[in-house]
Specification:
Strands 1-2 form a two-stranded antiparallel sheet. By secondary structure, it is mainly α. The chain starts with a helix and ends in an 8-residue tail after the last strand.
Length: about 70
């Protein structure tokens, strides 16, 4: 995510605490937060794909993604 967008998220958060946000700003804040979180989650998944668990017997196994709860 671009630095300018992160700055805008912070600017909107500060404004929300002081004077409040308009409906348009609330929608913008929600969209920026969603974009930030989606990027964070994608990055974390890429990192976790490289993690390997070594068992006491010496075998190595990549992490397995858990099935979603129903």
């Amino acid at each position: 995510m671009e630095h300018e967008k992160i700055e805008r998220i912070n600017e909107l958060a500060r404004k929300k605490k002081t004077v409040g946000l308009t409906q348009a700003e609330l929608a913008e804040q929600a969209a920026l937060r969603r974009e930030y979180l989606d990027g964070f989650r994608a990055n974390m998944e890429d990192i976790l794909k490289g993690v390997v668990i070594q068992r006491p017997d010496g075998t190595k196994q990549p992490l397995q993604k858990k099935a979603p709860k129903q």
